[in-house]
Fold:
Amino acid sequence: MTKGGMESVEVFTAEGKGRGLKAQKEFLPGDVIFAEPAYAAVVFDSLTHVICHTCFKRQERLHRCGQCKFAYYCDRTCQRAAWLNHKNECSAIKRHGKAPTENIRLAARILWRMEREGSGLSEGCLVPIDDLQNHVDSFGDEEKKELRADVESFLEFWPPHCQQFGMQFISHIFGVISCNGFTLSDQRGLQAVGVGIFPNLCQANHDCWPNCTVVFNNGNHEAVRSMFHTQMRIELRALSKISPGDELTVSYVDFLSLSEERRKQLKKQYYFDCACEHCKKQLKDDLMLAVKTGESKPSADTVKEVIQHSKDTLEKINKARMEGNYHEVVKLCRECLKKQEPVLGDTNIYLLRILSIASEVLSYLQMFEEAADYAKRMVDGYLKIYHPNNAQLGMAVMRAGVTHWHAGLIEAGHGLICKAYAILLITHGPSHPITKDLEAMRVQTEMELRMFQQNEFMYYKMREAALKNQKIQVMPEPSNENAPSLFHKKE
Structure:
């Protein structure tokens, strides 16, 4: 079954998994299989005044809706583009006296669209909203309690003059949001800023080692003339060669966890038992639990003790990060690494987690040389574990490259930036803001590398002078959040 711009994919029944998507033609790494605008989307409650409600970009100055005083937009173009979806919401917020939570707002936007268009297939959708999976029957007591509270809040917000929907159907919509809400990120892809429903993407099944990735594209909203004003959308991109008839899969969770942990997370959040090859055969688990080999191989008790110490330290680090106490974070990382290094192998995930935090926080504190050493070790471990075209890997390699560049290690820095650029060209595409940033860094570091190779002494002299005259670029403050996960789960 294909429809409106979705000719390259087909919905089919996947054995043991329900519905899935399969390719109708061949795709190569980096190809966009399809792009899909949101059926409905909202900005998170905590960010409503700093993120544009149309394109989900973070902006310094936003225009506020003069009617409801709640919605914010980049400019008039974004405001006009939003009006069809905001019109009902605007009057409902005024009537209600305040804006409800993001879940209620998203459910209302979905139901207003259904009121306008009917509950059948919308243009470009392979499956109607009615048919999306809701998993309400699998909800635990706490989730059912939250669902009842959401339905009650929704009924208080929903205007009496609008089409009325039954309790069961409203519950279905909240179930769909809970299981299929996709995380929207800002233009740099580094912070989760909202949640949306994309019915076609919902059909793609999970695999821990997928052949596709999803990137959120905020569109080109700088163009004032509406003919160039491209729409906010998600893009499903191929990570490897895909043949006609192959199932298209994405990963709902980050791969950097043991297969047992990934399966627990998938069962808890998405209510299914992962039966992918990597989980069934526990592939890469041996690398993620690697210990030092050779004559001084540590005992099982020593390994157990160091892993427990690592888990305890990670909890202390989270607390210190929440308090913004970054020097304490560095101290905890250094102490933990001293215990880990004689015992854990280079690809052990507990070692890699500490290396990742240490390199990020030290970069922020501008202790670049030590940060670069940890970042290099982290990337070496990641390259042995992750799929070669994994977006998280690309972002980690980029951070390591920038850290080396700031440390004055121009050869290693340029090499890592080039490697990151090659990965992100596939996962994000050439027009994504992050890829464009990387391309500028690649050109800059290539120029500096040529200067370094011609005259090393002059390169360091010029670098020293440049740093005296211009404050070195400060790295972003370390975030307590992980990179945005694919699907948004209400906390």
